[in-house]
Structure formats: structure tokens, C-alpha cells
Design a protein that fits this description.
The structure is a single chain. The chain is of the alpha+beta class. The chain has helices at about 1-20, 115-125, 170-200; strands at about 55, 60-65, 75, 95, 130-135, 135-140, 155, 165. It folds into two domains: about 35-100, no CATH class; about 115-200, no CATH class. The strands form three sheets. A four-stranded antiparallel sheet has the order 1-2-3-4, with no helix packed on it. It has a two-stranded antiparallel sheet with strand order 5-6. Helix 2 packs across helix 3. The N and C termini lie far apart (about 100 Å).
Length: about 200
């Protein structure tokens, strides 16, 4: 009965927090409404577990969001059960929001890319711009226009999904690296020609 009462009180607290999310007059210098998810401090060999926010994906998959012990935001299909020892789900499980990983176990159909000239052509043919954004000035960078949807550097650009396009950072880094390899091959060929001519 005490457990049922505690659960009921928790729900009431959550609902009260949700109701306060709208505009409120709390006074000058006072923070706005807060929806809190506290940690599990039981500890033990597995250590405390972070508080999480649960979101249900469209296909029914569970997603849990939390801040790990290093302050990074993470997403995983199960909530962390500890931060040390051998918990069922670790504090560093899932994917760090904004992380770009190249760990081979998270990739499939790995094949060496050798068409360096195509990468060089893509880089050379892509216009660079200077621009202002969110109060900052950038001397050079990519800008995605409507005609760039589907380009090698453009991501989230399916117009039917009404998404705001963003830069495809993995593709940009890989393509620019391949372009450098193409230039290196050309330089090596020229060096051999120069060396041959110098001997004549």
C-alpha cells in the first residue's frame, strides 16, 4: 500500500510539474518551470544510476535520454542501471548525442574507397561561402540551397519529410580526405616526371 501511495504521489508531482511548463509569473531572477528526473542513489557495486527521460519512437522502440557522469547527453533503448562495476546497462551505453564514431563494429559493408579523383571533383565543384549565423561570422563554409538537396554534403534533406537540411559531416571529412589523396597522387607523379627530366 505504501508503494502504491508513493507511486501515486510521484505521478502527482510529475503532473504538477507538467502543468507548470506554460508561462508563469514567478518573479525577477527566478528560473522557469523545471521537469526533474532524479538519479538512483542506491549505489552498491554498480554505483548510482542517472535519471532518464523516456520517449517512445514511432515504431514502438523505447528511447531513454540521460546525462552521463562526464556531462554528455546520451540516447539508448534501455536506461542505465549503474555507473560503475558491471551494471546491466552502463552509464556510457548508447550513442552520445552529436558524436561521430568510426568504430568498425558499428558499420556494415565496409569496402575501401579508392575513387579519389571523384572526391576531388566533388570538392572543387562545390561552392564555398562566407556568412553570418546566430550572431557569428564564418569566413568559409558550406551553405545548403534548395538545389543542393541530395548533394554529397547535404543531410536530412528529404523535402517530403519537411526536415531542415544539415551538413553530412562524415561524408565531408571522408570526401575531403580522399581529395587530398588525389592531390597527393598527382604530386607524386609530377615529382617523378621532374626527377626524370632532371636526369636528362
Amino acid at each position: 500500500m505504501n508503494l502504491l501511495r508513493a507511486s501515486f504521489l510521484s505521478v502527482l508531482l510529475l503532473l504538477s510539474a507538467c502543468e507548470a511548463v506554460g508561462p508563469m509569473l514567478a518573479g525577477v531572477g527566478i528560473a522557469g518551470a523545471t521537469l526533474a528526473a532524479s538519479r538512483n542513489i542506491s549505489g552498491g557495486a554498480e554505483g548510482p544510476a542517472a535519471g532518464t527521460v523516456f520517449l517512445g519512437e514511432a515504431d514502438g522502440t523505447n528511447s531513454y535520454i540521460w546525462t552521463d557522469a562526464t556531462g554528455d547527453l546520451r540516447i539508448n533503448n534501455s536506461a542505465p542501471t549503474g555507473s560503475s562495476g558491471s551494471p546491466t546497462t552502463t552509464d556510457l551505453a548508447g550513442v552520445e548525442v552529436g558524436a561521430q564514431t568510426s568504430w568498425h563494429e558499428l558499420k556494415q559493408n565496409i569496402v575501401k574507397f579508392t575513387n579519389y579523383q571523384a572526391a576531388l571533383d566533388a570538392v572543387v565543384e562545390t561552392t564555398l561561402y562566407s556568412f553570418d549565423m546566430e550572431g557569428l561570422h564564418y569566413d568559409t563554409g558550406y551553405v545548403i540551397h534548395e538545389e543542393d538537396r541530395g548533394s554529397w554534403f547535404s543531410y536530412n534533406d528529404d523535402i517530403s519529410q519537411q526536415q531542415i537540411p544539415s551538413l553530412k559531416m562524415r561524408e565531408i571529412v571522408g570526401t575531403q580526405s580522399a581529395a587530398i589523396k588525389a592531390l597527393n597522387e598527382k604530386i607524386l607523379r609530377l615529382e617523378k616526371i621532374v626527377e626524370k627530366l632532371s636526369k636528362n
